[in-house]
Design brief:
CATH topology of the largest domain: Aspartate Aminotransferase, domain 2
Shape: globular
Number of strands: 17
Number of domains: 2
Oligomer: single chain
Number of helices: 13
Low-confidence stretches: none
Mean pLDDT: 97
Order of helices and strands: EEEHHHEHEHHEHEEEHEHEEHHEEHEEEH
CATH class of the largest domain: Alpha Beta
CATH superfamily of the largest domain: Type I PLP-dependent aspartate aminotransferase-like (Major domain)
Radius of gyration: 21 Å
Strand order of the largest sheet: 4-12-11-10-7-5-6
Largest sheet: 7 strands, mixed
Length: 398
């Protein structure tokens, strides 16, 4: 029987029944080591007892009210996020794209309340990915995501990544903000240069622009810091997050300084599900683990261990692996073949990974993965490299 789903996904021929830590188990009982984590979503792996307990406890009490009423767990989660970051205020959403829509609206409203509604343009960067809404595909600038959906949404001016001169040249009387991923995820684990981010912060201050970080993928411990901006010592005015904050439960949000958010008053924005009691209980449970003493330091240590093992893989298989990049447990393996082929070869070894741009495969294991599981993942990549080399040699011989 044909599927009743609209075919917008090229799904692998795999279906999973349950998860256990860093492992997924198919309906047929096969075990896969998951170095994709639902594209950096399952931050604490599968079946984490503290998350499961918090979800069940809240489900027995109250799933949803609405934002017409106070939500105490949301107040608590907001306070914890604010206390741990640059921000003064928080707003909760259901997804990363929705969080980024809120971030852009916040920046536009900031200038509008000052009497400059014309300052709605946002400078963005080549290789970026900010989601799939009409506005966010325009912000990302990749034609494969916006072609066929009508005119490209106005107000987004793209420039090369890590090029401060290009940013300065793009700024005009309509510019109100700059939006950047500190580490581009889908773009290929491409890191912003620290000097570039410092210069970008200074340029925004000079020109009266708001600096927005997209930390949907990098945030909530993924890079070995709570948020990736901490690696650079360069704080934004607004920060969008999602993915890891819910540990698999749909949850996102925005952090902002009080100054940046001053235009977002009652009635300017809203969401039906964002910040509901069930999501807030899970978000707080995630923070219980992520912000526990020593947890983030362990992520950083494990990330270094993983990159060291991958560097050895590169040295052993230079015809397949070109380089290794990333921070914490957000790691990219650059290959000499299309990432889809490398991902497929790894999947045949029962290791899950995620393709990206720039000929890079993303490795995004749960932050709770053990040293032994990280070593096993690299071992499976080793087998994938051997298989790819054998297939290449066979093709050359024929």
């Amino acid at each position: 029987m044909s599927s009743a789903l609209i075919p917008t996904y090229a799904r692998a021929d795999l279906a999973f029944e349950r998860g256990e830590g860093a492992w997924l188990v198919t309906v047929g009982g096969e075990r896969y080591l998951d170095f994709g984590a639902g594209i950096a979503v399952a931050s604490l792996g599968y079946g984490h007892p503290h998350l499961v307990g918090a979800l069940k406890a809240q489900a027995d009490k109250l799933w949803h009210t609405s934002n017409l009423y106070q939500i105490p767990e949301g107040e608590r989660l907001a306070r914890r996020l604010v206390d741990a970051t640059f921000a003064d205020m928080a707003f909760f959403t259901n997804s990363g794209a929705e969080a980024l829509e809120f971030a852009v609206k916040t920046a536009r409203k900031y200038h509008a309340v000052d009497g400059h509604p014309e300052r709605f343009h946002v400078v963005t960067f080549e290789g970026a990915f900010h989601g799939r809404t009409i506005a966010m595909v325009a912000a990302g600038g990749n034609p494969k995501y916006y072609e066929g959906f009508g005119p490209k949404a106005p107000g987004f001016d793209q420039v090369p990544f890590n090029d401060i001169a290009a940013v300065r040249a793009a700024i005009g009387p309509q510019t109100g903000a700059v939006l950047i991923e500190p580490i581009q995820g889908e773009g290929g684990i491409r890191e912003a240069d620290p000097a570039f981010l410092k210069a970008l912060r200074a340029l925004c201050d000079e020109c009266g622009l708001l600096l927005i970080y997209d930390e949907v993928q990098t945030g909530v411990g993924r890079t070995g810091r709570f948020f990736a901006y901490e690696h650079y010592g360069v704080a934004p005015d607004i920060l969008a997050f999602a993915k890891g904050i819910g540990g698999g439960f749909p949850l996102g949000g925005c952090l902002a300084t009080k100054e940046a958010a001053r235009g977002m008053t009652a009635g300017t924005h809203g969401t039906t599900y964002g910040g509901n009691p069930l999501a807030m209980a899970v978000g707080n449970a995630v923070l219980d683990v992520i912000l526990a003493p020593g947890f983030l330091e362990e992520v950083a240590r494990k990330g270094l261990l993983l990159r060291q093992r991958l560097a050895q893989l590169r040295d052993a298989h230079p015809a397949i692996v070109k380089g290794v990049r990333g921070q914490g447990l957000m790691v990219g393996v650059e290959t000499h073949l299309p990432p889809a082929d490398f991902v497929a070869a790894a999947r045949r070894e029962h290791l899950l990974s995620v393709p990206a741009g720039d000929n890079v495969t993303r490795l995004l294991p749960p932050l709770t993965a053990t040293d032994e599981e990280l070593a096993e993942g690299v071992h499976r990549l080793e087998r994938a490299c051997v298989a790819l080399e054998a297939a290449r040699a066979k093709g050359a011989a024929s």
